[in-house]
Fold this protein.
Amino acid sequence: MTYVLGLNAFHADAAACLVKDGNLVAAVEEERFRRIKHWGGFPSEAIKYCLAEAGIGLAEIEHVAVNSDNRANRWRKLAYVLTSGVSPSYVLSRLRQRGERADVAGNLARSLPGESFRGTVHAVEHHLCHLASAFLVSPHDKAVAVSVDGFGDFSSAAWGLGEGGTLSVDGRVYFPHSLGVFYEAMTQFIGFPHYGDEYKVMGLAPYGEPRLVDAMKRIVRLERDGTFALDLRYFRHASGEGANYQVKDGIPSGGQLWSDGLVDLLGPARDPAAPLEDRHRDIARSAQVTYENAFFNLLEAVHRRYGVDALVLAGGCAYNSVANGKVLERSPFRKLYVQSAGGDAGGAIGAAFAIWHKLGGTGAKRRFVMDHAYWGPSATPDQIASAIDERRADFDAAGCTIERIADEATLCRRTAQAISEGKVIGWFQGRLEWGPRALGNRSILGDPRRADMKDILNLKIKRRESFRPFAPSILREAVPAWFETDDDVPFMMQVFRIRAEKRKEIPAVTHVDGTGRLQTVTWAGNPRYARLIEAFHALTGVPMVLNTSFNENEPVVCRPEEAIDCFLRTRMDVLVLGDTLIAR
Protein backbone atom coordinates (compact mmCIF):
# COMPACT_ATOMS: atom_id res chain seq x y z
CA MET A 1 0.00 0.00 0.00
CA THR A 2 1.49 3.32 -1.11
CA TYR A 3 0.32 6.78 -0.13
CA VAL A 4 1.39 9.92 -1.99
CA LEU A 5 0.54 13.31 -0.48
CA GLY A 6 0.33 16.04 -3.14
CA LEU A 7 0.75 19.71 -2.21
CA ASN A 8 0.38 23.16 -3.66
CA ALA A 9 2.20 25.14 -0.99
CA PHE A 10 3.29 28.75 -0.44
CA HIS A 11 1.28 29.99 -3.36
CA ALA A 12 -2.28 31.14 -3.93
CA ASP A 13 -4.89 28.39 -3.70
CA ALA A 14 -2.76 26.26 -1.40
CA ALA A 15 -4.14 22.73 -1.39
CA ALA A 16 -3.50 19.11 -0.52
CA CYS A 17 -4.60 15.78 -1.94
CA LEU A 18 -3.97 12.15 -1.04
CA VAL A 19 -3.45 9.33 -3.52
CA LYS A 20 -3.60 5.72 -2.34
CA ASP A 21 -2.27 3.06 -4.71
CA GLY A 22 -3.02 5.29 -7.70
CA ASN A 23 -6.51 6.31 -6.62
CA LEU A 24 -7.54 9.69 -5.28
CA VAL A 25 -8.82 9.59 -1.71
CA ALA A 26 -9.24 13.26 -0.84
CA ALA A 27 -8.48 16.74 -2.16
CA VAL A 28 -9.27 20.18 -0.76
CA GLU A 29 -8.08 23.78 -0.87
CA GLU A 30 -6.78 25.37 2.31
CA GLU A 31 -9.06 28.40 1.87
CA ARG A 32 -12.07 26.30 2.79
CA PHE A 33 -10.70 25.95 6.33
CA ARG A 34 -8.99 29.33 6.72
CA ARG A 35 -11.99 31.21 5.25
CA ILE A 36 -9.74 33.55 3.22
CA LYS A 37 -10.14 33.47 -0.56
CA HIS A 38 -7.15 32.06 -2.47
CA TRP A 39 -5.30 31.42 0.81
CA GLY A 40 -1.60 30.81 0.26
CA GLY A 41 1.05 29.31 2.53
CA PHE A 42 1.48 25.78 3.83
CA PRO A 43 -1.81 23.80 3.58
CA SER A 44 -1.71 22.31 7.06
CA GLU A 45 -5.47 22.04 7.57
CA ALA A 46 -5.96 20.48 4.15
CA ILE A 47 -3.25 17.93 4.97
CA LYS A 48 -4.92 17.08 8.27
CA TYR A 49 -8.22 16.55 6.51
CA CYS A 50 -6.68 14.27 3.87
CA LEU A 51 -5.01 12.12 6.52
CA ALA A 52 -8.21 11.94 8.57
CA GLU A 53 -10.28 10.99 5.53
CA ALA A 54 -7.92 8.07 4.89
CA GLY A 55 -7.72 7.18 8.58
CA ILE A 56 -3.92 7.30 8.63
CA GLY A 57 -1.12 9.29 10.25
CA LEU A 58 1.76 11.16 8.69
CA ALA A 59 4.08 8.23 9.38
CA GLU A 60 2.23 6.19 6.76
CA ILE A 61 2.98 8.72 4.00
CA GLU A 62 5.86 7.41 1.92
CA HIS A 63 6.01 10.23 -0.58
CA VAL A 64 5.18 13.94 -0.57
CA ALA A 65 5.01 15.59 -4.00
CA VAL A 66 5.13 19.39 -4.30
CA ASN A 67 4.14 21.21 -7.49
CA SER A 68 7.26 23.36 -7.78
CA ASP A 69 10.91 22.61 -8.44
CA ASN A 70 13.44 25.39 -7.89
CA ARG A 71 15.96 23.51 -10.05
CA ALA A 72 13.76 23.59 -13.15
CA ASN A 73 14.99 25.76 -16.02
CA ARG A 74 17.87 26.97 -13.85
CA TRP A 75 20.15 27.91 -16.73
CA ARG A 76 17.48 30.02 -18.35
CA LYS A 77 16.89 31.75 -15.02
CA LEU A 78 20.58 32.47 -14.59
CA ALA A 79 20.94 33.79 -18.12
CA TYR A 80 17.94 36.06 -17.65
CA VAL A 81 19.24 37.47 -14.37
CA LEU A 82 22.63 38.20 -15.93
CA THR A 83 21.22 39.97 -18.99
CA SER A 84 17.97 41.61 -17.90
CA GLY A 85 19.11 44.11 -15.29
CA VAL A 86 16.94 42.67 -12.52
CA SER A 87 18.09 44.08 -9.17
CA PRO A 88 20.19 41.80 -6.92
CA SER A 89 17.90 42.55 -3.96
CA TYR A 90 14.90 41.19 -5.87
CA VAL A 91 16.80 38.01 -6.75
CA LEU A 92 17.93 37.53 -3.15
CA SER A 93 14.39 38.04 -1.90
CA ARG A 94 13.06 35.38 -4.27
CA LEU A 95 15.82 32.95 -3.30
CA ARG A 96 15.09 33.48 0.39
CA GLN A 97 11.39 32.77 -0.12
CA ARG A 98 12.14 29.63 -2.09
CA GLY A 99 14.46 28.38 0.63
CA GLU A 100 11.66 28.68 3.16
CA ARG A 101 9.25 26.88 0.83
CA ALA A 102 11.67 24.04 0.18
CA ASP A 103 11.60 22.91 3.82
CA VAL A 104 8.58 20.65 3.42
CA ALA A 105 9.65 18.21 6.14
CA GLY A 106 10.13 21.08 8.59
CA ASN A 107 6.74 22.54 7.76
CA LEU A 108 5.11 19.14 8.23
CA ALA A 109 6.73 18.80 11.64
CA ARG A 110 5.58 22.26 12.71
CA SER A 111 2.06 21.80 11.36
CA LEU A 112 1.48 18.30 12.74
CA PRO A 113 3.29 18.18 16.10
CA GLY A 114 3.61 14.69 17.48
CA GLU A 115 3.41 13.16 14.00
CA SER A 116 6.44 11.58 12.39
CA PHE A 117 7.32 11.90 8.71
CA ARG A 118 9.93 9.45 7.39
CA GLY A 119 9.10 9.57 3.70
CA THR A 120 10.64 11.23 0.66
CA VAL A 121 9.87 14.73 -0.62
CA HIS A 122 9.71 15.16 -4.39
CA ALA A 123 9.83 18.55 -6.11
CA VAL A 124 7.94 18.38 -9.41
CA GLU A 125 8.22 21.09 -12.06
CA HIS A 126 5.18 23.38 -12.09
CA HIS A 127 3.94 22.87 -15.63
CA LEU A 128 4.59 19.14 -15.57
CA CYS A 129 2.20 19.14 -12.59
CA HIS A 130 -0.41 21.04 -14.58
CA LEU A 131 -0.12 18.64 -17.52
CA ALA A 132 -0.24 15.63 -15.21
CA SER A 133 -3.27 17.02 -13.37
CA ALA A 134 -5.10 17.10 -16.69
CA PHE A 135 -3.96 13.91 -18.43
CA LEU A 136 -3.23 11.39 -15.67
CA VAL A 137 -6.78 11.67 -14.27
CA SER A 138 -8.54 12.10 -17.63
CA PRO A 139 -10.71 9.48 -19.38
CA HIS A 140 -8.36 9.45 -22.39
CA ASP A 141 -5.67 6.82 -22.98
CA LYS A 142 -3.97 9.17 -25.45
CA ALA A 143 -4.29 12.94 -25.57
CA VAL A 144 -2.46 16.17 -26.25
CA ALA A 145 -1.86 17.98 -22.95
CA VAL A 146 -1.60 21.78 -22.83
CA SER A 147 -0.92 24.05 -19.85
CA VAL A 148 -1.30 27.83 -20.07
CA ASP A 149 -0.65 29.88 -16.96
CA GLY A 150 0.82 33.04 -15.50
CA PHE A 151 4.24 31.74 -14.48
CA GLY A 152 5.59 28.74 -12.65
CA ASP A 153 9.22 27.60 -12.46
CA PHE A 154 10.13 30.22 -15.10
CA SER A 155 7.71 29.12 -17.82
CA SER A 156 4.16 30.18 -18.67
CA ALA A 157 2.99 27.43 -21.01
CA ALA A 158 3.88 23.84 -21.82
CA TRP A 159 2.58 21.05 -24.00
CA GLY A 160 3.21 17.41 -24.69
CA LEU A 161 1.63 14.05 -25.36
CA GLY A 162 0.10 11.71 -22.83
CA GLU A 163 -0.21 8.01 -23.59
CA GLY A 164 -1.06 5.30 -21.10
CA GLY A 165 0.75 6.20 -17.90
CA THR A 166 3.44 8.32 -19.57
CA LEU A 167 3.50 12.04 -20.29
CA SER A 168 6.06 13.96 -22.33
CA VAL A 169 6.77 17.70 -22.14
CA ASP A 170 7.88 18.70 -25.62
CA GLY A 171 7.61 22.48 -25.72
CA ARG A 172 7.37 25.55 -23.51
CA VAL A 173 7.00 29.30 -23.47
CA TYR A 174 9.41 30.87 -20.99
CA PHE A 175 9.48 33.98 -18.83
CA PRO A 176 8.81 36.86 -19.48
CA HIS A 177 6.19 35.92 -22.12
CA SER A 178 2.82 34.84 -20.74
CA LEU A 179 -0.83 34.84 -21.77
CA GLY A 180 -1.73 34.71 -18.10
CA VAL A 181 0.22 37.89 -17.42
CA PHE A 182 -1.39 39.56 -20.45
CA TYR A 183 -4.89 38.74 -19.18
CA GLU A 184 -4.09 39.72 -15.60
CA ALA A 185 -2.58 43.02 -16.75
CA MET A 186 -5.73 43.78 -18.75
CA THR A 187 -7.83 42.83 -15.71
CA GLN A 188 -5.94 45.34 -13.58
CA PHE A 189 -6.12 47.98 -16.33
CA ILE A 190 -9.93 47.73 -16.48
CA GLY A 191 -10.03 48.34 -12.70
CA PHE A 192 -10.34 44.87 -11.17
CA PRO A 193 -7.30 44.86 -8.84
CA HIS A 194 -7.70 41.74 -6.73
CA TYR A 195 -5.97 38.40 -7.21
CA GLY A 196 -8.21 36.13 -9.27
CA ASP A 197 -10.44 38.86 -10.75
CA GLU A 198 -9.94 37.65 -14.34
CA TYR A 199 -13.38 35.99 -14.39
CA LYS A 200 -14.90 39.48 -14.20
CA VAL A 201 -13.29 40.37 -17.53
CA MET A 202 -14.84 37.25 -19.06
CA GLY A 203 -18.26 38.26 -17.76
CA LEU A 204 -17.87 41.85 -18.95
CA ALA A 205 -16.50 41.06 -22.41
CA PRO A 206 -19.80 40.24 -24.18
CA TYR A 207 -21.07 43.73 -23.37
CA GLY A 208 -18.31 45.32 -25.48
CA GLU A 209 -17.09 45.32 -29.05
CA PRO A 210 -13.68 44.03 -30.24
CA ARG A 211 -12.62 47.48 -31.46
CA LEU A 212 -9.14 47.28 -29.95
CA VAL A 213 -8.02 43.89 -31.25
CA ASP A 214 -5.73 45.44 -33.86
CA ALA A 215 -4.09 47.60 -31.20
CA MET A 216 -3.60 44.54 -28.98
CA LYS A 217 -1.78 42.74 -31.79
CA ARG A 218 1.12 44.99 -30.82
CA ILE A 219 0.98 43.61 -27.28
CA VAL A 220 0.84 39.87 -28.09
CA ARG A 221 2.68 38.55 -31.14
CA LEU A 222 1.69 35.13 -32.45
CA GLU A 223 4.12 32.70 -34.09
CA ARG A 224 3.40 29.91 -36.56
CA ASP A 225 4.79 27.29 -34.17
CA GLY A 226 1.99 28.18 -31.74
CA THR A 227 4.11 30.20 -29.33
CA PHE A 228 3.53 33.82 -28.43
CA ALA A 229 5.59 36.76 -27.24
CA LEU A 230 4.69 39.90 -25.30
CA ASP A 231 5.92 43.34 -26.30
CA LEU A 232 7.57 44.17 -22.99
CA ARG A 233 7.14 47.91 -23.48
CA TYR A 234 3.59 47.45 -22.23
CA PHE A 235 4.47 45.46 -19.06
CA ARG A 236 6.46 45.87 -15.85
CA HIS A 237 6.95 42.29 -14.72
CA ALA A 238 10.09 41.54 -16.72
CA SER A 239 12.26 43.86 -14.66
CA GLY A 240 10.93 42.63 -11.33
CA GLU A 241 9.22 45.90 -10.38
CA GLY A 242 5.80 44.69 -11.46
CA ALA A 243 6.30 41.07 -10.43
CA ASN A 244 6.11 41.75 -6.72
CA TYR A 245 4.00 38.67 -6.09
CA GLN A 246 3.77 37.84 -2.41
CA VAL A 247 1.65 35.98 0.11
CA LYS A 248 1.22 37.90 3.37
CA ASP A 249 -0.87 36.43 6.17
CA GLY A 250 -2.16 33.91 3.65
CA ILE A 251 -3.42 36.59 1.24
CA PRO A 252 -1.81 36.60 -2.23
CA SER A 253 -1.17 39.85 -4.04
CA GLY A 254 0.99 41.21 -6.82
CA GLY A 255 2.18 44.49 -8.20
CA GLN A 256 0.89 46.43 -11.18
CA LEU A 257 1.76 44.51 -14.32
CA TRP A 258 1.00 47.10 -17.00
CA SER A 259 3.26 50.01 -17.90
CA ASP A 260 2.51 53.56 -19.03
CA GLY A 261 2.94 52.30 -22.59
CA LEU A 262 -0.46 50.64 -22.29
CA VAL A 263 -2.03 54.01 -21.45
CA ASP A 264 -0.51 55.45 -24.60
CA LEU A 265 -2.02 52.60 -26.61
CA LEU A 266 -5.47 52.18 -25.00
CA GLY A 267 -6.10 55.39 -23.11
CA PRO A 268 -6.29 55.89 -19.33
CA ALA A 269 -6.78 52.96 -17.00
CA ARG A 270 -10.02 52.77 -15.03
CA ASP A 271 -9.98 53.62 -11.34
CA PRO A 272 -11.65 50.71 -9.49
CA ALA A 273 -14.11 53.15 -7.91
CA ALA A 274 -15.10 54.74 -11.24
CA PRO A 275 -18.13 53.58 -13.24
CA LEU A 276 -17.66 51.21 -16.14
CA GLU A 277 -17.83 52.87 -19.55
CA ASP A 278 -18.24 51.46 -23.05
CA ARG A 279 -14.48 51.86 -23.57
CA HIS A 280 -13.79 49.52 -20.66
CA ARG A 281 -16.24 46.99 -22.05
CA ASP A 282 -14.49 47.20 -25.42
CA ILE A 283 -11.11 46.60 -23.75
CA ALA A 284 -12.53 43.52 -22.01
CA ARG A 285 -13.96 42.16 -25.27
CA SER A 286 -10.74 42.87 -27.16
CA ALA A 287 -8.63 41.23 -24.45
CA GLN A 288 -10.80 38.10 -24.55
CA VAL A 289 -10.56 37.94 -28.36
CA THR A 290 -6.78 38.48 -28.21
CA TYR A 291 -6.43 35.67 -25.66
CA GLU A 292 -8.58 33.34 -27.77
CA ASN A 293 -6.56 34.09 -30.92
CA ALA A 294 -3.33 33.17 -29.13
CA PHE A 295 -4.90 30.13 -27.46
CA PHE A 296 -6.27 28.69 -30.69
CA ASN A 297 -3.04 29.47 -32.52
CA LEU A 298 -1.32 27.22 -29.98
CA LEU A 299 -3.96 24.49 -30.28
CA GLU A 300 -3.70 24.47 -34.07
CA ALA A 301 0.07 24.02 -33.82
CA VAL A 302 0.01 21.18 -31.29
CA HIS A 303 -2.68 19.37 -33.25
CA ARG A 304 -0.52 19.60 -36.39
CA ARG A 305 2.37 18.21 -34.39
CA TYR A 306 0.65 15.23 -32.77
CA GLY A 307 -2.40 14.49 -34.91
CA VAL A 308 -4.38 13.35 -31.86
CA ASP A 309 -8.01 14.46 -31.51
CA ALA A 310 -8.27 14.44 -27.70
CA LEU A 311 -7.12 17.49 -25.71
CA VAL A 312 -6.66 17.99 -21.96
CA LEU A 313 -6.14 21.46 -20.49
CA ALA A 314 -4.74 22.84 -17.25
CA GLY A 315 -3.11 25.95 -15.83
CA GLY A 316 -4.79 29.08 -14.57
CA CYS A 317 -5.92 29.98 -18.09
CA ALA A 318 -7.88 26.72 -18.21
CA TYR A 319 -10.49 28.63 -16.20
CA ASN A 320 -11.22 30.69 -19.30
CA SER A 321 -14.43 28.76 -19.84
CA VAL A 322 -15.47 31.01 -22.73
CA ALA A 323 -12.43 29.95 -24.77
CA ASN A 324 -12.78 26.33 -23.62
CA GLY A 325 -16.34 26.28 -24.91
CA LYS A 326 -15.11 27.05 -28.43
CA VAL A 327 -12.46 24.30 -28.61
CA LEU A 328 -14.69 21.90 -30.55
CA GLU A 329 -15.69 24.72 -32.95
CA ARG A 330 -12.43 26.58 -33.52
CA SER A 331 -9.80 23.84 -33.28
CA PRO A 332 -9.34 20.41 -34.89
CA PHE A 333 -9.77 18.68 -31.51
CA ARG A 334 -12.91 16.60 -31.06
CA LYS A 335 -12.65 15.72 -27.36
CA LEU A 336 -11.83 17.97 -24.39
CA TYR A 337 -11.18 17.30 -20.70
CA VAL A 338 -10.57 19.98 -18.08
CA GLN A 339 -10.54 18.76 -14.49
CA SER A 340 -12.33 20.72 -11.78
CA ALA A 341 -9.21 22.42 -10.33
CA GLY A 342 -7.27 23.42 -13.42
CA GLY A 343 -5.26 26.13 -11.64
CA ASP A 344 -2.51 25.95 -9.06
CA ALA A 345 -4.57 24.00 -6.51
CA GLY A 346 -4.85 21.25 -9.12
CA GLY A 347 -1.07 21.10 -9.25
CA ALA A 348 -1.27 19.15 -6.00
CA ILE A 349 -3.03 16.33 -7.85
CA GLY A 350 -0.65 16.63 -10.78
CA ALA A 351 2.37 16.34 -8.50
CA ALA A 352 0.94 13.31 -6.68
CA PHE A 353 -0.01 11.40 -9.83
CA ALA A 354 3.25 12.32 -11.60
CA ILE A 355 5.20 10.77 -8.73
CA TRP A 356 2.88 7.77 -8.50
CA HIS A 357 3.52 6.94 -12.16
CA LYS A 358 7.22 7.74 -11.92
CA LEU A 359 7.51 5.22 -9.10
CA GLY A 360 6.00 2.51 -11.27
CA GLY A 361 2.31 3.16 -10.72
CA THR A 362 0.10 1.01 -12.87
CA GLY A 363 2.47 0.77 -15.79
CA ALA A 364 0.90 1.47 -19.17
CA LYS A 365 -2.64 1.29 -17.81
CA ARG A 366 -4.32 3.99 -15.74
CA ARG A 367 -7.14 3.00 -13.43
CA PHE A 368 -8.27 6.28 -11.89
CA VAL A 369 -10.44 8.77 -13.79
CA MET A 370 -11.66 11.96 -12.14
CA ASP A 371 -15.26 12.01 -13.32
CA HIS A 372 -16.63 13.97 -10.35
CA ALA A 373 -15.37 16.73 -8.06
CA TYR A 374 -16.57 15.56 -4.65
CA TRP A 375 -13.30 14.97 -2.78
CA GLY A 376 -13.60 17.31 0.21
CA PRO A 377 -15.06 17.12 3.73
CA SER A 378 -18.59 15.96 4.43
CA ALA A 379 -20.80 16.18 7.51
CA THR A 380 -22.55 13.29 9.25
CA PRO A 381 -26.25 13.50 10.17
CA ASP A 382 -25.21 13.86 13.83
CA GLN A 383 -22.84 16.74 13.00
CA ILE A 384 -25.60 18.49 11.04
CA ALA A 385 -28.08 17.97 13.88
CA SER A 386 -25.59 19.33 16.42
CA ALA A 387 -24.89 22.41 14.29
CA ILE A 388 -28.62 23.10 13.99
CA ASP A 389 -29.19 22.64 17.74
CA GLU A 390 -26.44 25.16 18.54
CA ARG A 391 -28.27 27.82 16.52
CA ARG A 392 -31.81 26.88 17.52
CA ALA A 393 -32.43 30.23 19.19
CA ASP A 394 -31.31 32.09 16.07
CA PHE A 395 -33.57 29.97 13.89
CA ASP A 396 -36.50 30.66 16.21
CA ALA A 397 -35.78 34.40 16.14
CA ALA A 398 -35.79 34.29 12.34
CA GLY A 399 -39.16 32.50 12.31
CA CYS A 400 -37.76 29.33 10.74
CA THR A 401 -39.37 25.91 10.54
CA ILE A 402 -37.06 22.91 10.76
CA GLU A 403 -38.11 19.57 9.32
CA ARG A 404 -36.19 16.36 8.71
CA ILE A 405 -37.31 14.57 5.54
CA ALA A 406 -35.79 11.10 5.38
CA ASP A 407 -37.28 10.17 2.00
CA GLU A 408 -34.97 11.56 -0.70
CA ALA A 409 -37.67 11.81 -3.36
CA THR A 410 -39.87 13.87 -1.05
CA LEU A 411 -36.93 16.08 -0.01
CA CYS A 412 -36.06 16.79 -3.65
CA ARG A 413 -39.69 17.37 -4.62
CA ARG A 414 -40.20 19.86 -1.79
CA THR A 415 -36.98 21.67 -2.67
CA ALA A 416 -37.88 21.76 -6.36
CA GLN A 417 -41.28 23.22 -5.49
CA ALA A 418 -39.61 25.99 -3.48
CA ILE A 419 -37.29 26.76 -6.40
CA SER A 420 -40.25 26.92 -8.79
CA GLU A 421 -41.88 29.49 -6.47
CA GLY A 422 -38.91 31.82 -6.89
CA LYS A 423 -37.28 31.04 -3.57
CA VAL A 424 -33.50 31.02 -3.04
CA ILE A 425 -32.18 27.71 -1.73
CA GLY A 426 -28.97 26.88 0.12
CA TRP A 427 -28.15 23.27 -0.81
CA PHE A 428 -25.55 21.48 1.38
CA GLN A 429 -24.97 17.80 0.60
CA GLY A 430 -22.25 15.15 0.69
CA ARG A 431 -18.58 15.93 0.14
CA LEU A 432 -17.29 19.38 -0.68
CA GLU A 433 -16.32 20.10 -4.30
CA TRP A 434 -12.65 20.18 -5.37
CA GLY A 435 -11.90 23.35 -7.32
CA PRO A 436 -13.54 26.78 -7.45
CA ARG A 437 -16.95 25.73 -8.80
CA ALA A 438 -19.96 24.76 -6.71
CA LEU A 439 -21.27 21.66 -8.45
CA GLY A 440 -24.37 20.71 -6.53
CA ASN A 441 -23.03 19.89 -3.07
CA ARG A 442 -22.31 23.42 -1.78
CA SER A 443 -24.64 25.41 -4.04
CA ILE A 444 -27.20 28.18 -3.93
CA LEU A 445 -30.05 27.29 -6.28
CA GLY A 446 -32.69 29.33 -8.06
CA ASP A 447 -35.26 29.23 -10.85
CA PRO A 448 -33.63 29.72 -14.28
CA ARG A 449 -37.00 30.72 -15.81
CA ARG A 450 -37.30 33.97 -13.85
CA ALA A 451 -35.89 37.06 -15.58
CA ASP A 452 -35.57 38.72 -12.17
CA MET A 453 -33.73 35.84 -10.48
CA LYS A 454 -30.29 37.43 -10.99
CA ASP A 455 -31.52 40.59 -9.26
CA ILE A 456 -33.13 38.54 -6.48
CA LEU A 457 -29.88 36.67 -5.82
CA ASN A 458 -27.80 39.83 -5.81
CA LEU A 459 -30.28 41.57 -3.51
CA LYS A 460 -30.60 38.70 -1.06
CA ILE A 461 -27.09 37.25 -1.02
CA LYS A 462 -24.44 37.84 -3.65
CA ARG A 463 -24.21 41.64 -4.07
CA ARG A 464 -21.96 41.16 -7.08
CA GLU A 465 -21.53 43.08 -10.33
CA SER A 466 -24.64 43.09 -12.52
CA PHE A 467 -22.71 42.02 -15.62
CA ARG A 468 -21.64 38.68 -14.14
CA PRO A 469 -23.79 35.74 -15.27
CA PHE A 470 -25.20 32.86 -13.26
CA ALA A 471 -24.81 29.27 -14.41
CA PRO A 472 -27.19 26.39 -15.21
CA SER A 473 -26.89 22.83 -13.90
CA ILE A 474 -28.60 20.63 -16.49
CA LEU A 475 -29.33 16.92 -16.72
CA ARG A 476 -26.79 15.45 -19.12
CA GLU A 477 -29.38 13.85 -21.40
CA ALA A 478 -31.12 17.21 -21.89
CA VAL A 479 -28.07 19.08 -23.23
CA PRO A 480 -28.73 18.59 -26.99
CA ALA A 481 -32.22 20.05 -26.72
CA TRP A 482 -31.05 23.19 -24.93
CA PHE A 483 -27.48 23.87 -26.13
CA GLU A 484 -25.94 24.07 -29.59
CA THR A 485 -22.98 21.91 -28.50
CA ASP A 486 -23.51 18.45 -27.03
CA ASP A 487 -20.70 17.40 -24.70
CA ASP A 488 -19.89 16.39 -21.13
CA VAL A 489 -19.16 19.42 -18.93
CA PRO A 490 -19.18 17.97 -15.40
CA PHE A 491 -16.99 20.69 -13.88
CA MET A 492 -18.60 23.84 -15.35
CA MET A 493 -15.42 24.62 -17.30
CA GLN A 494 -17.00 25.42 -20.68
CA VAL A 495 -19.44 28.01 -21.99
CA PHE A 496 -21.81 26.88 -24.78
CA ARG A 497 -24.37 28.76 -26.84
CA ILE A 498 -27.93 28.18 -25.68
CA ARG A 499 -30.29 27.37 -28.53
CA ALA A 500 -31.93 30.58 -29.73
CA GLU A 501 -35.47 29.27 -29.29
CA LYS A 502 -34.74 28.24 -25.67
CA ARG A 503 -33.14 31.45 -24.40
CA LYS A 504 -36.40 33.15 -23.55
CA GLU A 505 -37.36 30.17 -21.36
CA ILE A 506 -34.27 30.43 -19.12
CA PRO A 507 -33.32 34.13 -18.96
CA ALA A 508 -31.71 33.87 -15.52
CA VAL A 509 -28.88 31.67 -16.87
CA THR A 510 -28.62 33.12 -20.37
CA HIS A 511 -25.80 35.66 -20.68
CA VAL A 512 -26.14 38.75 -22.84
CA ASP A 513 -24.48 36.92 -25.76
CA GLY A 514 -26.85 33.94 -25.57
CA THR A 515 -24.44 31.62 -23.79
CA GLY A 516 -24.41 29.68 -20.54
CA ARG A 517 -21.58 28.19 -18.46
CA LEU A 518 -23.23 24.84 -17.93
CA GLN A 519 -22.65 21.93 -15.60
CA THR A 520 -23.85 18.58 -16.89
CA VAL A 521 -25.30 16.44 -14.10
CA THR A 522 -25.51 12.65 -14.23
CA TRP A 523 -27.22 10.14 -11.98
CA ALA A 524 -23.93 8.30 -11.54
CA GLY A 525 -21.96 11.41 -10.61
CA ASN A 526 -24.41 13.04 -8.19
CA PRO A 527 -27.67 11.11 -7.80
CA ARG A 528 -29.32 13.40 -5.25
CA TYR A 529 -28.65 16.53 -7.32
CA ALA A 530 -29.91 14.75 -10.45
CA ARG A 531 -33.07 13.75 -8.57
CA LEU A 532 -33.62 17.35 -7.52
CA ILE A 533 -33.25 18.63 -11.11
CA GLU A 534 -35.53 15.87 -12.37
CA ALA A 535 -38.14 16.91 -9.80
CA PHE A 536 -37.86 20.52 -11.02
CA HIS A 537 -38.17 19.25 -14.59
CA ALA A 538 -41.34 17.37 -13.71
CA LEU A 539 -42.85 20.53 -12.21
CA THR A 540 -41.79 23.03 -14.86
CA GLY A 541 -40.71 21.25 -18.03
CA VAL A 542 -37.19 22.74 -17.62
CA PRO A 543 -34.44 20.14 -16.89
CA MET A 544 -32.05 22.53 -15.13
CA VAL A 545 -31.68 24.83 -12.14
CA LEU A 546 -29.67 27.98 -11.61
CA ASN A 547 -26.57 27.10 -9.62
CA THR A 548 -24.14 29.49 -7.93
CA SER A 549 -21.65 28.92 -5.15
CA PHE A 550 -22.82 28.69 -1.55
CA ASN A 551 -21.03 31.73 -0.13
CA GLU A 552 -21.30 35.46 0.40
CA ASN A 553 -18.02 37.08 -0.72
CA GLU A 554 -16.02 34.39 1.07
CA PRO A 555 -14.76 30.92 0.20
CA VAL A 556 -17.46 28.35 -0.51
CA VAL A 557 -18.91 27.00 2.72
CA CYS A 558 -17.26 23.83 3.97
CA ARG A 559 -18.99 22.87 7.23
CA PRO A 560 -22.68 22.99 8.21
CA GLU A 561 -21.88 25.77 10.69
CA GLU A 562 -20.73 28.01 7.83
CA ALA A 563 -23.81 27.17 5.78
CA ILE A 564 -26.01 28.11 8.73
CA ASP A 565 -24.11 31.38 9.25
CA CYS A 566 -24.55 32.29 5.58
CA PHE A 567 -28.26 31.44 5.69
CA LEU A 568 -28.96 33.47 8.80
CA ARG A 569 -27.01 36.60 7.82
CA THR A 570 -28.53 36.77 4.32
CA ARG A 571 -32.09 36.70 3.02
CA MET A 572 -31.92 33.14 1.74
CA ASP A 573 -35.35 31.51 1.88
CA VAL A 574 -34.58 27.82 2.41
CA LEU A 575 -31.59 25.86 3.69
CA VAL A 576 -31.35 22.14 2.96
CA LEU A 577 -28.66 20.51 5.13
CA GLY A 578 -28.48 16.84 4.25
CA ASP A 579 -31.99 15.55 4.99
CA THR A 580 -33.06 18.63 6.98
CA LEU A 581 -35.10 21.40 5.34
CA ILE A 582 -35.09 24.77 7.11
CA ALA A 583 -37.45 27.45 5.80
CA ARG A 584 -38.06 31.05 6.79
Observations:
- The chain is about 35% helix and 20% strand.
- The mean pLDDT is 93.
